[in-house]
Amino acid sequence: MPVDPQSAIDLLKELRALTADENGAQRLAWSPVWLKAREWFQSKLRELPIEHHLDAAGNSWTTLRGESDKSLILGSHLDSVPNGGWLDGCLGVLAAFAVLRRISEEFNGTPPVTIRLVDWADEEGARFGRSLFGSSAFAGTHSIDQDRNRTDATGLRLEDALASCGINIDAIGNAAVERRNAAAYLELHIEQGPVLESMDLPLGAVLGTKGVERHAITFHGQEAHSGSTPMNARRDALAAAAKLALEIRPIAQRHPDAVCTMGSVRTFPGIVTAVVGRCETTLDQRDLDAGVLAQMYREAQRKSIQFAAEEGCTVEWSRIWNIAPEPFHPHLIELCEEAIHETAGRVHRLPSGPLHDAAEVSRAGIPTVMMFVQSLKGISHNKIEDSREDHLQLAITAFDKLASKTIDWIRTQ
Ligand SMILES: [Zn+2]
After folding, report:
1. Rounded CA separation 297/302 (Å)
2. Helix, strand, or coil here: 274?
3. Which of 30, 34, 69, 273 pairs as cysteine with 161 (C-beta 3.0–4.6 A)?
4. How far is the CA of 149 from the centre of ligand 1 (A)?
């Protein structure tokens, strides 16, 4: 019995009509539009022989009981950034729904293993700055103390927004009970980058999510008059920072999938008539390999000290944030490749630069893999986010095959 990919695409369009305005999708977590999207989704599920509940962190669980309690989990997120696209997150949820329906019909409501569909709460963190909220509660990597007093642009506290949706922030760790019997997790998502399009491929198997090292780097020199200070007497903090901004390219380019970005620079006093005495910059480095990430971090530090010395300056580093790489399950990556190969003929393995709920699930020790579908122009988190409809059809078909292969694998465990 084949999956019906068009049904999922039609539902995506219906959801877009219901929750987007002229600027794009507005399904901001814990907002009325997000709640409306979830209610709409529940109304679609009613036709199936399922159970449904929200867990302690607001994740939405739909369960089709199988002969075995061992569970295959399929999921993604219905929430969006403000002015978001029509596919980020909800493609994975509605593809999972199409697969769930196919499995329910094929096995007359009782598949060999239990199938669960999860819509994670607040994946984006767009409103309170806490990404992967629900999945980190599930995984046990939540950070209640830091999150308690987060506020949105209107000053409303996260804690209070949760309470208005029936969620007690002190209890979100109880979402960990949902890990019981979890045997595997699969997520279909748009790539949100340009790699598959540049290779003219519709689909890719995701190797894992890259780790991130994020630092504030400040160069200290000497403010001085731009007219009276000879060139060889200057301690120009911007000059040192500029050298580093160019050096991070070869540091990254020594590794095939590594990226390094200096995304901000502020100069002080920041006027046209003064040599820069202090330059504040940021560096974001990512790779799937923890060793590569650590090496790039050390190299950038060493070079920053060298460039500071060359310019008569000093340099100071402080870590803003970091997260370890999360490689996905080797056998599930193989099954994902097989499913793509059978559906689209050609396949590519690639790491994910963006973080995803799947990384949290994997961190909890549950075998996990993601499948990516090509994003047009690599654009996401924007109303022009799009993928070709024939690619979406291939994606849902391949994801369904991956689900069948994973069920067979779970039965052998
Ligand atoms: Zn997403």
Report:
1. 9
2. strand
3. 30
4. 24
